[in-house]
Amino acid sequence: MKEEKIAVCITAQTSSQRLIDYGAEIAEQYNSSLHILHVQKGDSIFQNGETLKLLTKLLSYGDRCGGIVHVLCDEDVPKCIAQFAKEEGITKVIMGELPKVEKKYTTKVQKETQFQKIINALPKDIEVIIVNHQQTIQTELKQKIG
User: What residue spans of the chain are helical by DSSP H?
Assistant: First the structure.
C-alpha cells in the first residue's frame, strides 16, 4: 500500500487554520506526513507586512500541529503546487473552497479561476479534498494562533 502524504494549501487568511486542523486530523488518521504549503505569486513573501505577520503565525501553527512547512514563490502558482505535489509524492491535497460569489448574467466566456487551475494542474492520481467554509472540525489539536 502506498504511503499517504497530505499537503494543505494555505493562504494568508485566518480561515487557513481550519484547513491545517483538518489536514492534521487526516494525517493522524492515515499515520502520514503532513505538509503545509503556501505559494506566493511573485518572487517574495515580504511584500506586505500584515500579510507576512499572519502567514508567520499560520506557518508556526502548522509546525506545532506536526506539519512540515513549505513556502514557495512563483509566478505560476498552480504549476508550482502541482510540481511540489509530484516531487514530494503527495497523495492528498487539502484546499478551502472559494467564497460564494453571485454570478451576473454574462455572454463572455468565463475565465478559469485560479482554484480550477490548481485542481487541473495536479496529477490525476492525487485526491483533492475541498473543505467548505461551514465545516466544523472536531479535533484535539485546537491550539489558537497567537
Answer: 16-30, 49-64, 77-88, 114-121
Residue ranges making up the domain that contains 126: 5-99+106-131
**pTM: predicted TM-score of the whole model, two decimal places:** 0.81
Count of domains for the chain = 1
CATH number of 54's domain:
3.40.50.620
* Residue ranges of the chain whose pLDDT lies below 50: 136-146
Whether 146 is in a domain gets the answer no
Q: Which H/E stretch holds residue 72?
A: strand 68-74
pLDDT tens figures, 61-97? 999 999 999 999 999 999 999 999 999 999 999 999 8
In a domain, 145, yes or no: no
